[in-house]
């Protein structure tokens, strides 16, 4: 696949369609009525949370995006399916979290979302789409073209004063809220145990954050590695999202 504008437009359209399709499934069920299936992932309760809706949402997303995978020869990384390593072979790959914040969803609380990104093999995020089904907010960004919320420009609007406290949510919405609730920061320090979010948690929102004027990085300040060969987990490097880089200097 090339970087032709027409392809970016088409793939953004398909990613938005896929996110909305998954959101419709998520919103069709009261998450608090569902049983947690559970899975072997990180060590935290949140990283092991899984419901039948996660799987149905992933299926809905892939029904929309599979034709693009064949047409543009894309790779795929999605949370609820095994990593086939196509992300290391193809020039671009879809990176999908069909339901981030499953634990919040299963408790009937807001803070969950759908996250879809198109990433270059070198880890550069080209397209990011996040959908918050609880309030029907659709965020998107294309590299170099700004960030948008419900098709309106989405930028940091920071007021002077103390940091705002971000409500507990899935990693994607907590990162989004560093822009929505500026000034704000969301930090996950490095740790040895598996967890700390995964590539699919931060791929789409990292581009949206950057294009909106925010800041994100590994805990040591280096750029996020969003096609790591070492691990799908971010626990060893940690993550920082903030309304601005100055906030990171001030509060860390």
SSE arrangement:
Blueprint: H1 5-27, H2 45-48, H3 52-72, E1 75-78, E2 92-100, H4 102-106, E3 113-120, E4 125-132, E5 137-142, E6 147-149, E7 152-153, H5 171-180, E8 185-188, H6 199-211, E9 215-218, E10 239-242, H7 245-251
Parallel strand pairs: 1-2
Antiparallel strand pairs: 2-3, 3-4, 4-5, 5-6, 6-7, 8-10, 9-10
Helix pairs in contact: 1-3, 5-6
How would you explain this protein's 3D organization?
- This protein has 252 residues and is of the alpha+beta class.
- It has a single domain, classed as Fructose-1,6-Bisphosphatase, subunit A, domain 1 (Fructose-1,6-Bisphosphatase, Chain A, domain 1).
- The chain contains seven helices and ten strands.
- The strands form two sheets. A seven-stranded mixed beta sheet has the order 1-2-3-4-5-6-7, sandwiched between helices. Strands 8-10-9 form a three-stranded antiparallel beta sheet, sandwiched between helices.
- β6 and β7 form a beta hairpin.
- α1 packs antiparallel against α3 and α5 runs parallel beside α6.
- The longest helix has 23 residues.
- It is globular and about 45 Å long.
- The N terminus is likely disordered.
Q: Strand percentage, roughly?
A: 15-25%
The strand order across the widest sheet is 1-2-3-4-5-6-7
Cα end-to-end separation: 41 Å
Estimate the helix proportion, in percent: 25-40%
Mean of all residue-level pLDDT scores: 91
CATH class: Alpha Beta
Unreliably modeled segments: 1-6
CATH superfamily caption: Fructose-1,6-Bisphosphatase, subunit A, domain 1
Q: What number of structural domains do the residues give?
A: 1
């Amino acid at each position: 696949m090339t970087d032709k504008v027409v392809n970016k437009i088409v793939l953004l359209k398909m990613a938005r369609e896929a996110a909305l399709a998954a959101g419709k499934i998520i919103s069709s069920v009261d998450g608090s009525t569902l049983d947690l299936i559970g899975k072997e992932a990180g060590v935290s309760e949140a990283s092991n949370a899984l419901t039948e809706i996660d799987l149905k949402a992933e299926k809905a997303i892939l029904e929309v995006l599979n034709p693009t995978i064949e047409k543009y020869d894309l790779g795929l990384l999605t949370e609820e399916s095994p990593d086939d390593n196509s992300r290391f072979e193809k020039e671009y790959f879809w990176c999908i979290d069909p339901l981030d914040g499953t634990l919040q969803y299963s408790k009937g609380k807001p803070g969950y979302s759908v996250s879809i990104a198109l990433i270059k093999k070198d880890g550069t995020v080209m397209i990011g789409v996040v959908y918050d089904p609880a309030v029907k907010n659709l965020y998107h960004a294309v590299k170099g073209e700004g960030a948008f919320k419900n098709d309106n420009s989405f930028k940091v609007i920071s007021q002077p004063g103390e940091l705002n406290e971000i409500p507990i949510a899935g990693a994607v919405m907590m990162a989004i809220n560093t822009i929505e609730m500026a000034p704000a920061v969301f930090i996950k320090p490095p740790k040895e145990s598996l967890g700390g979010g995964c590539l699919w948690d931060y791929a789409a929102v990292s581009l949206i954050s950057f294009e909106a004027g925010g800041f994100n990085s590994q805990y040591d300040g280096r750029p996020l590695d969003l096609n790591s060969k070492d691990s799908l987990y971010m626990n060893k490097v940690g993550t920082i999202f903030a309304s601005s880089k100055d906030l990171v200097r001030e509060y860390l």
